[in-house]
Amino acid sequence: MHIRFRAPALAVAGALAVVFGVIVSAGQAAPYRAPRGPDGKPNLNGIWQALNEADWDIEGHSAGPGRVMALGAEDAVIPGLGVVERGPLPYLPAAAAKKKANFEKRLTLDPEIKCYLPGVPRAMYLPQPFQILQSQKHIMMAFQYAGAVRTIYMADQTPAPADSWMGWSNGKWEGDTLVIDTTGFNDLSWFDRAGNFHSDELHVVERITATGPDHLSYEATIEDKKVFSRPWKMSMPLYRRKDKGARLLEFRCVEFVEDLIYGALRKGAR
Amino acid sequence: MRYRALAFGAALAAVAVMAGHTVAGQSPAAPAKKAIPRTPDGQPDLQGYWTNSTYVPLERPDKVTKALYTEAEFAALVKDAASREAEQTEPGTVADVHYDFSQFGLDRSQSAFVKNDLRTSMIVEPATGRMPPLTEEGKKRAADRAAERRRAGATTDAVQNMPIGTRCLIMAGSGPPMMNAGYNSNYQIVQSPGYVTILVEMIHDARIIPIGDKQAALPAGMTQWMGDSRGHWDGDTLVIETTNLNGKNPFRGSSEKMKVTERLWRVDANTLGYKFTIDDPGTWTQPWTAEAPMTKSVGPIFEHACHEGNYGVRNTLAGARLEDRKAAEAAAKKTSN
Question: How would you label B229-258 residue by residue, b for 16+ Cβ within 10 Å and e otherwise?
Fold first, then answer.
């Protein structure tokens, strides 16, 4: 009996293992192999955009009222699950207080409101497209928002020569993944409209991998000893803009914020 | 440090100079027969760091009637201009509050600039070296714009009255056409499949030029500051045609209907030829063409966060408002006396 039952039991187990194995392999499909560029590296060229609510708040958040009453539902906070892995963000105590103050004064402090350069990683998930322009020595990222630009040095690499908004990016390929190490930030950009911030000690390591013809996997590890107690990671897909004629257009926003910034200094202003 | 590096680069470039005005004289229709570098997909390789910094003016100066200076005349001209740039400040004067250009290598003579270009003007067509006469429409527009500026008031009254470069909206280097400036006339060209991208240092403008049918033209009703630029290769010359300008950055009085055709080609390891034609029948009685070659520069290009650090606009306006208040107080005092 035992033997007789055992055999079918084993057979069932074997069959299950096969089925299970199939499921496992379906879940871990052979990694996508991106088309190659002329240099044999994955071709990441194209116009890409995040499709999430991270610019409102990189952490999970419910819907909420906007900052400007007159804008009603158009300015209301769009809910999102967040892009931070293993949250909440590990703020040091003083930094947590500053984040809270930033949130309360976000209408006047958020650099995006003043059309300032977005910094990294915020540039990557602003609700506007960006374009990857990939040559052998340099990979340019051109962002529609404020005409921001990043140059990723794949050759001629040097340490950051000075602090800047967009940082200083050196890149390398790890297999089919583009790994970008960025330092040399100033302490002026934010992560989002909710006041999440960093210091000039910010160090960002991004990993970008094509997961399909129209998708990139984007991960950024954030390290900033002045602000966070440990490194933390955000991840999200980036989507190729498939719209007919998709292209970057000018969003030269300086002229839209001049009255906001300098209006009180106009002759005769009250 | 970078500008020291640039100065060093300029010194190196000076060792390997091209003879006379051949740079500018080189016609794109008759390219040099020697092999030029190419990208892996066979395009002429225009990549690298370049500058169009030059002492050659767009238009031939009033009293000059010849097309070329002698080398001695040119050397004297550069020396004179460089000394004016270096001596912008005089210790103990109000002007001294401004920094000395030479201190930061911002003067053209310390940075890389196009050497040995003996031409008396960038304009090659018409042969006068000057822009052709304005049409009646062009004259009226110039008069209307001048009247509008007077109506708007002083540049210190409001930020909108200030020059657009001061406001960090766009600078001459972006164009099109891409004109040199007093400093930071630096460019980086990057070529990727289907695109030539020209990063302009000033205000980090990236001109993304689609090649051939890579990207559809912008619909006629849509305009932009830098317009809609489309490129194609004519042999080994990149031809960029730009329309759809929004007219907020007029070039020498142009209208928003201006069409700019730029030609960019590799002359040798250290030189790019650059030629542009302005076609704007509503402004000038004929199209006109200028040449402004680029010479190899030393990278990298740094972030030019112009708007973010624009203390100039704030301080200028704040100073003017302080003057307004002082004047008002003085007037009130006079009345009460």
Answer: bbbeeeeebbbbbbbbbeeebbbbbbbbeb
